[in-house]
Amino acid sequence: MFFLILMSTALLVGIAVAGEPATGSVNQVRDRWAQINYQLPKPQREAAFEELLHQSEKIRQATPRDAAALIWEGIVLSSLAGEKGGMGALGLVKRARADFEAAIKLDAGALDGAAYTSLGALYYQVPGWPLGFGDDAAARTMLRKGLAIDPDGIDANYFYADFLRDQKDWAGARTAFQKALAAPARPGREVADAGRRQEAQAKLKDVTAHLAH
Description:
Largest sheet: none
Protein name: Tetratricopeptide repeat protein
Radius of gyration: 16 Å
Keywords: Signal
Distance between the termini: 33 Å
Organism: Pseudoxanthomonas mexicana
Shape: globular
Structural class: mainly alpha
Order of helices and strands: HHHHHHHHH
Signal peptide: 1-18
CATH architecture of the largest domain: Alpha Horseshoe
Mean pLDDT: 90
């Protein structure tokens, strides 16, 4: 069986990107994503992400050259994949990858480099060949590109930390999680920030336990 790590906890994973200037419609998707990901009970999330995907698709279709719209469609696709799991998730993450790659071609710095961070998160969470396209080397490259654009951001540091944790680089992961937790608050992103900090704190505790052994 083909299982994905629940990317809804990551994606961005899906991903709660910086308090960026974007269209109102994209911001509506962004804010609704945070509500679903961090406030809805798990049994309700899949249906809610399905509904949000329809909304994000319409925005992306209306503004096909808007990197922010592509990024947020990719984030919603990734989060829905995390809720679905199994083989049904593979098509969704392939679509998300295409969105992030298209966003990078349009504007690599959009949303503080969120396309790089999101793509990196996919590469380390999706299984590798022959089931998926996962690639740890590509993940490291993409995540570092995201960090280069947003070195102090909560998400860029969180996902790099989670990748290092996945690689069992406990000391590196601890440093990156601590940096994520020290990231400045993002006005208007209180729900996303609070949820991400909880995730970072929980994983930092796990990393610290490994370092204590």
